[in-house]
Amino acid sequence: MIELLSSFSWTQLLQPQWYIENGGLWLLLFVVFAETGLFAGFFLPGDTLLFIAGIYAHNIGEGPNAEPGLAYQFLKHFNLGHIQNEWVDLIILWILISLCGVLGNMIGYWTGRKVGPAMYNWKENFFFKRRYLEQAHDFYEKHGGGAIIVARFLPFIRTFAPIVAGIVGMNKAKFTFYNIIGCVAWVFSMLFAGHFLQKWLMASFGFDLKQHLEYIVLGIVIITTAPVIIKLVGGKKKAAATAAGSNATAENADSSFSGK
């Protein structure tokens, strides 16, 4: 522990493999919960962390020196560590991670119900950005309850979507339904994609994704943040066009009035 703390750097919080290598399954579960339960999702690498968790689900390393994967860290506590089956490992991780995601969202929803409106007046800091809350609110207004599902696949938005649902008074049963569907789908897509892409590339080309994690991180970040960036840029252009149109209308009205 002392050695880990002495070599710690804040930049490591942005590196998904650091969580896997140093905290294993339990840190992974905490991060998934914290993304929405502790409003820390804007800097935690949720999508890439799940994808890489899929790569390490069954084993860590290759060949005779390979160690049991992430699921083993759970199974061994129930004397089931002897089970070495990739499907069992994936399903165990799928269930555990989904549960943490659902719980985190429920905490976010409860926070929105209790203190949500006051959050618009909170002072901004490293862990809280008001613009993310406003973006989540706009996203919810546009997509309704389905935003809870879609938001799971969008960084920043997923952190504040459950809070917004609580603020606007979304029915608890309805929110819970969308919450479960969104979390299960998100975890399944990222986890299984990472595992089977690694397996296919190794079998077909001998290409080990574990040796190229930085490119995986970069690719997933681009894919998942592109919709948010496009939305922000499009929103600013639309707002600018609307403002320009309003000014032009006002000028025409003034000219007409002056002419009279």
Structural write-up:
With 260 residues, this protein is an all-alpha fold. The chain has one domain (19-240). Helices cover 70% and strands 2% of the residues. It is built from ten helices and two strands; from the N terminus they run H-H-H-E-E-H-H-H-H-H-H-H. The chain has a two-stranded antiparallel sheet with strand order 1-2. The chain is globular, with a radius of gyration of 22 Å. It is a multi-pass membrane protein. This is VTT domain-containing protein. Residues 89-195 form the VTT domain.
Shape: globular
Q: How many helices in DSSP terms?
A: 10
The total strand number stands at 2
Strand order across the largest sheet: 1-2
- Spans where pLDDT lies below 50 across 5 or more residues: none
Number of domains: 1
Keywords: Cell membrane, Membrane, Transmembrane, Transmembrane helix
Protein name: VTT domain-containing protein
InterPro entries: DedA-like, VTT_dom
Subcellular location: Cell membrane
Give a short summary of the structure:
The protein is mostly helical and 260 residues long. The chain has ten helices and two strands.
Core attributes:
single chain; 260 residues; mainly alpha; two-stranded antiparallel ribbon; 10 helices; 70% helix; globular; VTT domain-containing protein
